[in-house]
Amino acid sequence: MELARILDLENDGVNMAVDEQCLYVRCKRAMYQYDLQDMRLTAQNVVFQKDGKARGFAIYGEVVFLTDFCDLYILRKEDLQVIKHVRIGENLSSDLGAVCFDSQKAYISIRNGKMAVMDMDTWQYQTHDVCDASFWDHCVAGNRIYAGTVRGELLEIAADSMSIRRKTALCKKNIYSVVWHDGLMYTVSQDMTIKAADVDTFETICTVTKAVKGMAKILGVFEQYLVVADSGKVTVWDRHTLQHCDTLDFPTGAYNKGVILSGDRLWGSDFHSLYSAVLG
Questions:
Q1: Is 13:24 a contact under the CB 8 Å cutoff?
Q2: N or C: which end of the chain has fewer CB within 10 A?
Q3: Phi/psi of residue 70, nearest 5 degrees
Q4: Tens-place pLDDT, residues 39-54
Q5: Three-state SS for 241?
Q6: Cβ atoms of 10 and 269 closer than 8 Å
């Protein structure tokens, strides 16, 4: 794998996403958009007045959902201008976490087991008490939401009622990342394991121990491989058996928040630059 440095960008930890045409970067107080063909800066906007590290964003359709502590900013993807600002949380006990989407709604995790569900047409939202434990990560599969909690439980939540349908204890605490693919739910957790659970039975079918070290993040699935970011490295696993296939030195950003997988390409960051590499 050949690593290419694509941009010099002094930062305190970035977030990134890509679509078919552009790379999107949140760095310090601003959002940036770069053309994938020549890495030309095509849009930028200073969204925040102060620096902050509790930030992240997700793209859906023509908008960007950008979270900052208790606030949600909805940006127009074309020019990164803010079209909606909502304060959903109130304090340290209700700050915002991961955001995911289905075709009509956005699901925004809130500390202490709450989740805001926002209509993508009206931007109106309702807050639901799902459980009494915070979520590190969640994803949507059909009419279900799957969430990993700080107590080590994997939850299946009905999207229509926001009630828990099933749950299973995978570890003692902290499921950091959850990804659904082809009927399997993959997780990484503080017990240093990667697990695959069958969504139909909710039973764990594969476990690999001593697989990760820090607050690892599942980047996604590429061909027959599960790709995981972990403290300046990217590990590659057979998605059926979880057999280890490769370990790649690749910058993953602070707490593995500055790395993404898009198709066969990795995008990563350190505190000085952004990088890209093709898997294969």
A1: no
A2: C
A3: -100, 0
A4: 999 999 999 999 888 8
A5: coil
A6: no
